[in-house]
Amino acid sequence: MNKKIIFSLIIGLIISGIALYFAFKNVPFNELTDYFTTIHYVWLIPSVITIFLTFILRVVRWQIILGSFKQIGFWRIFHPLMIGFMLNCILPGRIGEIARPIILKKRENVPFPSGLATIAAERVFDLLLLISLLTGVLAFVRIDPGIDVSFGSYHLNGQTLETIAGSMLKFCLVLIAGIIFISMHACRRLIEKIIMRIPDIFFFSGKSFKDKIKKWISRPLVKIIETFAAGFTLIRHPKQIGLCLTLSFLIWTIQAFSYYLMSFACPGIELSFFESFAIMTIICFFIVLPSVPGYWGLWEAGGIFAMSLFGISLKEAAGYTLINHVVQIFPVIFVGIISAMAISFKIRQITAKN
Questions:
Q1: How far apart are CA 229 and CA 224, in angstroms?
Q2: Residue 256's pLDDT is what?
C-alpha cells in the first residue's frame, strides 16, 4: 500500500473505532448474541434479490451516462461496476471509485478522465435524489417529539433531523444551480480564472509559497470542476437527464425496500417503508465520512442512531443494523470477486496506480 492508502486506513480506523464505541457502549452484548438466534433468516433471500436489482439499474444508468461517449454492452459495464463496489467494501480510501474508470480505460478504451467524470455524475444524481427523498419522506414519518438520542456530545431528535433535512434541501438547490453554472463554458472558464488567481491574494509572500498554493489548492479545484463539468456534458439531452433521475429514484426506492424486507426478519422491528427509507438515508450520510473498508462502525452508528428515533430498543436496533449490514455488502463482495475472475482483474492493478 502507498502512503495515501495507509493514511486513509488510519483515519478510517480512528473514526470507525469512535463510532463503534458510541454505537455499542450501551448495548447488552449477551442479549444481542441471543437476539441473532431469533432472526428469521429466510427473509434475507428477497432482501438480497432486491439489492441486486438496484445494481442492474445502476448498470443501465451508467450505460446512459457513458452512451454519449461510447455504447458499451450490459455485461461489459456490469463487471467494472461490481468490482468497484466490491473494492469499496474491502479496501480503504474508496478505491473502487478509481477502479471503475481504470478498468474502462483498459477494456473499452474510454479515457480515464471521461470515466471518472461519469462516476462524479452518478454521485451527484445519488446525492440529489437522497436529499430530495429524505425531505419528502420526513413528511410521512412521525418521530416522537419527546425522543432525544445522544451520540457523544451530540443530540438528535425529530426537530434537529427536520432542520438538517431542510438545510440539505437548500444545499441540493445550490448544487443544481452550481452544476448548471459550471456546465456553461464561459462561466466555467471565469470560475477557473478566479481560482487560479487565488495565490495572488498572498501578495506579501514569496513565489515559492504562491506556487505551493497553486499546486495544492488552485489546480486540484480546477480539476474537480472540470471533472464534474465533463460528467454532465456527456449527458447532452433532457431525456437522458430524466432517465438518469428516474433510475436514481428507482435505485434508492428499491434499496429502501430491501431495508423494509429485513425488518420482517428481525423480531421487535416494526418499521414502515418510509421509516426504513429514513434510516437508510441517515446511514448513507454517516458512511460518507472516512471509515474502515466496508463502512464498519459508521454504518452501525448511523443505523442505531436513526432507529432510536422510532422508539426501537438498542438491542433490536443493533441486531437489525448488523445483520442488514452483512446482507447489504457480503453478496456484493461475492459477486464482485466473480466479476474480477471473469475479466481477469487483479487488485494490484489499482493499488499500484493509486
A1: 9
A2: 94
Residues 297/19, Cβ–Cβ less than 8 Å: yes
Q: What is the average pLDDT score of the chain? A: 81
pLDDT at 292: 72
What's the rounded Cα separation, in Å, for the pair 46 and 323? 14
Domain boundaries, the chain: 3-351
Those residues whose C-beta lies under 8 Å from the C-beta of residue 22, and which sit 6 or more positions away, are 151, 152, 301
Q: How much is the pLDDT for 21? A: 63
- What pTM does this model have? 0.79
Band of residue 249 on the pLDDT scale cut at 50, 70, 90? very high
Query: Looking at residue 154, what is its pLDDT?
Result: 59
